[in-house]
Each structure stands twice: as C-alpha cells, then as structure tokens.
Amino acid sequence: MWLIGKYARQLQSNNRGKGKNCQCTHFLWIFSILLLGTASPGMANQSSVRGTWFLSFDNDVIAQSDDDYTNGLQVGWASGYLESYLNGPVPSLVGKGLAKLPLVNRSGRQRFISHSLSHRIFTPSDTETEEPIPGDMPYSGLLFATLTAGAQDAHKMDAFSLHYGIAGPSARGEEVQNQFHKIIGSNDIKGWDNQIHDELLINLGYEHRRRLLAIGDRAAWGGDIIGQAGATLGNLVSMASLGIGARFGWHVPDDFGIPPQFFGEETIGARPFSPGEAESGIWGFVLLNGSYFGNAIFWDGNTFKDSMSVDYDPAIARLYVGLRGFVGKWSGGISLVTTTVPWDNPEDRNSQVYGRLGIQYTY
Description:
Elements: H1 2-18, H2 23-36, E1 52-59, E2 68-78, H3 92-98, E3 110-123, E4 140-152, E5 156-167, H4 173-184, E6 199-216, E7 221-234, E8 237-250, E9 280-296, H5 297-300, E10 315-327, E11 330-340, E12 351-362
Antiparallel strand pairs: 1-2, 1-12, 2-3, 3-4, 4-5, 5-6, 6-7, 7-8, 8-9, 9-10, 10-11, 11-12
C-alpha cells in the first residue's frame, strides 16, 4: 500500500508541474483505500480467511513485435471463501449490494471477493513514425481496478466484476513502454503523441464456467473439460464471449482454472472446490475462446471526443496453450496466446501472438 501511495503522490507532483489534472492519481488512491478494507477492523471473521496474491504479465516480445496488444500487467488479491459478502473485504455499503446479486448468493456455494489493478498498452504496427497512422490501431494506455464477486460449487462458477479507471495519457502507457524499452535496450516508441485522449472508464462484467466432463483421477492422472460464457458492458469494452477449455496432467485441482475472458479477473477460477492433499502438481491446458464486440476503446477511440480509431470486424478468436503447476503455497503458469487481428492492417497480418506469465501465492 505504501508503494501505491508513493506512486500516486509522484504522479500528482509531476502533473502539477506540467499544469495537468491527473485523474489517475485519485483513482489509485481509491484503489488503495479499497484494498485497505481487507484489514479493516469492521470486517468480520477476516482473521480466519485465507487469501491469494497474484501477478500476471502479458507481452508480445515473444513474437518480436510491438503492435496491437503490446503489454499487460495485473496485480491483485483474492479472499478466502466467505459465508456472506457482508463479511467480505469491501465497505459495508458495497457488501450489501453484492449480497443482493443473483446466482452468486445461492445457498451452499463458496463465495469470494477479489481486487486487482491492471495496466494495458495497445500500439499500431508502425511504431517508428511520429505521424498518425490511419487504418491501424490507435495508441492507448489503460489503467483500471477491478472488484469481483464470485461463487462456485463442484460443477459451476459465476462471477460479477466492476472495472473502473482511466484511458489516455494519464494511464502512462508511453512512459511504461519506453521505460521497458530502455531496460531491454530497444528504441523508444515514436508515435505516442497520437494516442487517445483521457477518459474515465466504467465497465460491468459477468462470467460463467461449468465443468462439462471430468477425466481420470484427480488424485493422480486426470483432468477435465470446462465451458466458458460471459459478457461485458461499458466504455472500456462491450462484448459477448464463449469458450471451451481442456486440462490434463498430474494432480489437477477441482477448480475452474482456465484463462478468463479478455480483461477478466485472473483468479476467479483458481480456488479448488475441495481441499487437495497433494503437495505438487503439473498439467497442460488449451482454451479456444471467441468474442463478439460492440465497442472497445482501444479500437474505437474515445467515446465522447474525436480521436484515432480503426474499423474492425467485431468477431475475434483467441487460442491459449500453456502449462500450469503448483508446489506448496506457490503456483504459476505460462501460455502462448494466438489472437486474430480483425482489421485490414498495414502489414496485412491476420493473427498476433503474445506470451502470458502468471504467479500466485496462497496463505
């Protein structure tokens, strides 16, 4: 929390010197206060609730490119199971609202709450020119927090999410990308003066997962097939998604651990339904996911102002192939993601590949 606060004060100081009103500073403080709720004395039974910290990182450096979806970073925390959202790590007013949600409040379900902070960067194909590039993805940085309330039983899981944050210069996409390039000894990206304008983000999301088939023995070699469906609505992205994934390996837990829909919470399927006795496990997974978009700020540009944008096919497909495992309280995974490129880009590519790394610690 101290680091988040320090970063927020630094941004505020930097922008005061430039005469700007940095809205992301206030956003970071809101996120800090929300996470501090996990230690609030008014939260009942928190001393007995276990939690999970997680970190995930996406980057297309594995494909030797810096275009389209270029980089993503997500850090967050998920609670242990809660008897009621009223006792969860959120302000009491939010807990009362979550306790009225459908599906997740059915009796006999394991409930949880998670908080995360995400940063995403999108760039066009040609990152060497300083001129605007019509017909290609605009430059955009996104910085947003996510509050998720989920619940599961042995066969299915439901999760509702709220995303809130900012897009545009205040999201610091240019600074993050060029600083990373300095670290790896690469050239600066030249076209960030053409990025979309500042815009506050608000988005709602829902995801459902269902175990369609169990394979083999969970205590030895086995796996499962999991179906996935969901939708989001807001000025960040509005879309409907459908997917199916398969897992197989040694000591595969009875959770719903497949990649979430795009911009989804990384940990919503990572909690096993029943406690496992294994100290370690490893398995491979594959997921095919399709989405149909109504709008996306990283393609359509700003909602209320004129900005760079690109015309695109609203249908997009993603294929995830990866390996995941755990040892004691630590777990992690690596995957390759191949996604279709749904517009006529200057390089005439119809797909993009990026890598995803993730690590979790449960206490």
